[in-house]
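Usage

Read records sequentially. Each one opens with the input sequence:
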Amino acid sequence: MVEELSEGFLRIHHEEQREILGMEIEAYDWVSWIHPSYRDLVIEELSNDPTLKGHFLGNTNLEGIKLALSDAGGAAGGRKFPLIRSDDDWKTLVSRCPQFAADAEEPEAAEMLQVLYSAHEVASPEKASRLAQIISAVCDVLREKWDTDGPPALESLKAYCEASGICDRLPTLPNFTKIWEDFLFRLEDEVDPTSSRLFLNPEVLDEWIELIDLLTENEPRFLRHVGFPERIAGVIAKLFECIQREFREDVGETMLSEVATNTKKLADQTIRLTASAGYEPGAARALATQLLEYSGTLRERAKEREEGEPPDDDDDDYDYDRWAEESVDIEALFSDR
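and closes with the structure output:
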């Protein structure tokens, strides 16, 4: 039956054997639906059998939690939380969500927090209170897991901070020390004079700025604890020196569009970083202007290449040394500190 339905209604998934928190998890198969009509059939079948529904909720994965807390379902689009109708349903969900968080891979656990948070936003006051209790329990599990196993991805931290903010008892935030050190190490590696490649990989800087913004909003004490921005002034100076150094690098014909896009991103990041650190904005604006002009020049050259026009070696627009010669006074960044 399942094999037949997999042609248009169901999708069969296979999970390999793996180890989680020191426990061996055997390989297993699970099923999700492709056609929405089958989703409605699952809801109807479970709703008509409390015992089956209790077993489903007590052993479900992320897709089942999404189903249980789905919104705008049914023929008229007004059905909410179709599988959570009784106190027993809530008790089972309260028990299952932290269990799932402990066993799941990081992206799924973080996505579950987002699902719970979204459900909280549309719930009645009574149901919102129950969901806040579940979120609090899940946050406690994830924090302990991350502090033990290592820091999560930035998107997971964002989900944690957003969801935890609705709890009556604010959960303790994860230990940010390791993720801060990891981001700082990656950034310092990117701006190293022997291997600088910021024009090819601006994402490292972008993620670090997002982490600073996240900490500014949720845990400003940590930034003071690590001495931000005073203690990382040297890193920021190396960052801007790296940008000016990479102005001198030749850009391959096939990389013109990519580097043009990346340098435009760096212009925005330069402004954001100096604003977050409270540095003098004038020097940052000057460097951002350079980056935008440089990006425009690369974009023009890429367009000419696509149209089959040979580059004009005598064209001053392509004299890349001039970008490096128009140096920005980096020391002026720190003039007010």
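Summary fields computed downstream for this record:
- Residues 36-164 form one domain.
- The radius of gyration is 26 Å.
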